[in-house]
Write a structure and sequence with these properties.
There is one protein chain. The protein is of the alpha/beta class and 344 residues long. It contains 12 helices and 11 strands. β7 (189-191), α8 and β8 form a beta-alpha-beta unit. The longest helix has 22 residues, at 140-161. It is elongated, with a radius of gyration of 21 Å. The protein starts with a strand and ends in a 5-residue tail after the last helix. 50% of the residues are buried.
């Protein structure tokens, strides 16, 4: 039995832990062989592959990023994409594929299994924590920790100059990072994509904090939008990627300018960007990613294809890939409302 492994989409802490766990258990207990495909689905399209064995995965547990590389390649947008994938799998004598990724990567895996019968098992990865069917995705805990530390540090410089500091975090459609890091970091305003914000209300919260002789911190997800406007983009002319996504960023800078114009208080922006993706994974993400890798290779052994491993409470279960990618997991209104007591 030979198992293929790929990592697709944005990189995140914990990817190497999945690869390591799947290879270790697969080799030691099931005597499988492994092939890693470079740069996500692009590697399957081009046949770029490397051998994975126990020496190859030794020492990668604490490393961020992915030893296999990643890309946002959509094989269904490439000429003869499915045929080329089949040829690569046949050439490398791969019997089953473990796809590690988020909504887009796992959406491709679901379609390959459902429409073309290519044996796939999915592992949920995204710092946004927006995959349904799993309580948490690995990478999220690390990203929240990084954002929280940044907010902690920004409090002191905001207070020293008595200025507003706007912190822009990742979150295209879901505000989980903003919600968790904003609450943990003591932010005075948290803005998320699920709830359009009233700019006058935001300025009122900011002014309220200054009246209390306190410099406010505003945390905003990159996909948050004002009530009377659309997505704010730094580069509105940027091309879409192969999954139809535009590159986000810009709402933090726009928001700081509007707050300064309306309140007369100096406002600055910090965009955390890819800092949230980088560096060593947290202990929780290493634990979760390792368990996902172990359970993914068990699914391969059982011939249980077309599934994604998922965390439910403290148990790792299997759910259909189609179910896992059918909709995004967004922040419920009641969860957002409960933290509003800290606004202003």
């Amino acid at each position: 039995m030979r198992v293929g492994v790929l990592t697709g989409g944005g990189d995140c802490p914990g990817l190497n832990a999945v690869i390591r766990a799947a290879v270790r258990k697969g080799v030691q207990e099931y005597h499988y062989e492994f092939t890693g495909f470079k740069d996500g689905w692009r590697g399957l399209l081009t046949g770029a592959a490397v051998r994975l064995d126990i020496p190859a995965v030794r020492g990668i547990l604490p490393r961020g990023g992915t030893m296999l590389g990643s890309s946002r390649t959509n094989p269904f947008k490439e000429r003869d994409g499915v045929r080329r994938i089949r040829e690569s799998l046949a050439k490398c004598e791969v019997d089953a594929l473990i796809a590690i990724g988020g909504e887009d990567t796992l959406g491709v895996a679901a379609r390959l299994w459902e429409q073309y019968g290519i044996p796939c098992v999915g592992v949920p990865k995204t710092i946004d924590n927006d995959l349904s069917a799993t309580d948490y995705t690995f990478g999220f805990d690390t990203a929240v920790g990084i954002a929280t530390e940044a907010i902690d540090r920004l409090h002191t410089t905001a207070e020293s100059h008595m200025r507003v500091l706007v912190v822009e975090v990742m979150g295209r459609h879901a505000g989980w990072i903003a919600l968790h890091s904003g609450l943990a970091g003591g932010a005075n305003v948290i803005l998320i994509p699920e709830q359009r914000f009233d700019l006058d209300e935001v300025c009122g919260w900011v002014t309220s904090r200054f009246r209390a002789s306190y410099a406010p911190i505003v945390v905003v997800a990159e996909g948050a939008m004002p009530e009377d406007g659309d997505l704010v983009l730094k580069d509105a002319a940027a091309a879409l990627d192969s999954f139809g996504h535009v590159r986000l960023s810009g709402v933090g800078e726009w928001l700081a300018k509007e707050i300064e114009r309306r309140t007369g208080k100096e406002a600055r922006t910090t965009v955390l960007g890819h800092v949230q993706r980088g560096g060593t994974p947290s202990a929780f993400d290493r634990w979760l990613a390792s368990r996902f890798g172990l359970h993914a290779i068990d699914a391969v052994r059982d011939g249980d294809y077309g599934v994604m491993v998922a965390l439910r409470g403290t148990d790792v279960v299997r759910v259909p890939l189609g179910e896992a990618t059918a909709r995004l997991k967004t922040v419920p209104l009641e969860r957002y409302e409960e933290v509003k007591v800290f606004f202003g």
